[in-house]
Amino acid sequence: MKEIEELLAAWLPRQRWFAGKAAPVEAVRIERDLPVGGGDPGAHGPGLRLLVVRVDQPRGTDRYLVVLGLAEPGRLRPGLEHCAIGRCRVRGARRTAYDALHDPELTGRLLHLIARGADRGPVRFRTRPGHAVRTGLRSLVLTGEQSNTSLVFGEDYVLKAFRRLWPGLNPDLELNGALEGSPYAAPPHGWIEADIEDGGRPVPTTVAMLQGYLRSATDGWVLAATSVRDLYAAPGTGPADAGGDFAAEAERLGAATAAVHRALARALPTDVLSPSCLRGLADAMARRLDEATGQVPELAPYAGVLRSAFDDFARAPDPLPVQRVHGDYHLGQVVRTDAGWVLLDFEGEPAVPVAERRRPSSPLRDVAGMLRSFDYAARHQLIGSAEEDLLAPAARAWADRNREAFCAGYAAGGGTDPDKHLTALRAFEYDKAVYEVLYEAHHRPTWLRVPLDSIAALAHA
Ligand SMILES: Nc1ncnc2c1ncn2[C@@H]1O[C@H](COP(=O)(O)OP(=O)(O)O)[C@@H](O)[C@H]1O
Ligand SMILES: O=P(O)(O)O[C@H]1O[C@H](CO)[C@@H](O[C@H]2O[C@H](CO)[C@@H](O)[C@H](O)[C@H]2O)[C@H](O)[C@H]1O
């Protein structure tokens, strides 16, 4: 184990989904080693194990899921070299450890175990009642800017392995389950759960979820980025007149979002926040701001403006209706299929403890998330561009146009009219931008300027 822990200490920080890139790794410990098939010395073919790995860093301890393949030395299948973790000994036998999610032979076993509803000690594989799962399909890892690792099986399923683990039911599984029957969601077909120690007791924890694969899907971020590119390629043209205007899609997306919010409010508990709870919410936003300012000092000049927006929100006279929401809503979480928009990834902000993410919140949090995403889509292509100053007005115009269209679609689709709740909306937008500053500092330091520039622009508005 010690050897694998040492290998993981070097390998984990290089992974896209590793959340602690900004800080050194102090210790790595395998908390649970859950064999789910083969791999013993003398056994045929590579072994497969689910590891729950604890990583200590100065800012705290996180748990990650590693799906570990163990191949005999020199027997790592061609094409898998890039996912090797390193050489080690397992009960005296030499093995090559690798990220098994890239190995279709091993992931096929996971699919098979889900289809059978198998139990492997503290690991349980389940299908959703009424959903038979096809097996024998080959998997391929989806690439992209992701917090987790998703595989497509044939043209049928997506299996998402949750990388950063929090004990308990993952909201992605919970909310997708609650949205069964909605044309705007992809219902789960199955999942994998493992018992994880928390507070001295084993807690069933979702480690992976199987959903239907939406074959005709195009990522909302890709569509929006294409529209922005068209606009930047036609200097002097407004976003309504450039080739790939996105506003009609933004409006439909607003309506789809409202429909999902309504469905979640029907299926799961709702509440209304009293003034003291509202104060608590605003204080939590201020605490996040303090944390972010501590880590990213460039935020400091704007802290006063942000804090007073949170205070205004806390003093709002009207009670705030709350319900379960998406929680980390942006253009990369929605796909356009030939039947319309579908919302994905109801996990919430992966850096926030699950208990907090499962708390009812205002649907305006999601509206604010998508508005931030329009701003990201408009700004990110300007980073490093020699024409940044020239294109900045077009960026603003694109973000404003799509913002208005989304809000109009959301209100027309039966959601709270965002224009009538501007104080709350502004606080949620600022809070999201502060989260993004932390997120970018940890994951993509070269993108840090995007939320920082937005905060600067919002603060000067
Ligand atoms: N069911 C699905 N059908 C088609 N594409 C999907 C599906 N689920 C995810 N994707 C694609 O994978 C990307 C990442 O999925 P997501 O659930 O957001 O993962 P993460 O939590 O890692 O960000 C999505 O933006 C989408 O392009
Ligand atoms: O991995 P998730 O999709 O769960 O979400 C995390 O990663 C997102 C980036 O991939 C991050 O989103 C931020 O960048 C997006 C562009 O890549 C932009 O559209 C979003 O508005 C912006 O928040 C998200 O915050 C993070 O939780």
UniProtKB/TrEMBL annotation:
Under Gene3D superfamilies, the record lists:
3.90.1200.10
Domain Aminoglycoside phosphotransferase: start-end pairs: 249-381
- SUPFAM superfamilies found in the cross-reference section: Protein kinase-like (PK-like)
* Pathway terms, separated by semicolons: Glycan biosynthesis; glycogen biosynthesis
Q: What is its EC number?
A: 2.7.1.175
Protein family according to the UniProt entry: Belongs to the aminoglycoside phosphotransferase family.
Subunit architecture: Monomer.
What is this protein's record name? Answer: Maltokinase
Q: Which organism is it from?
A: Nocardiopsis suaedae
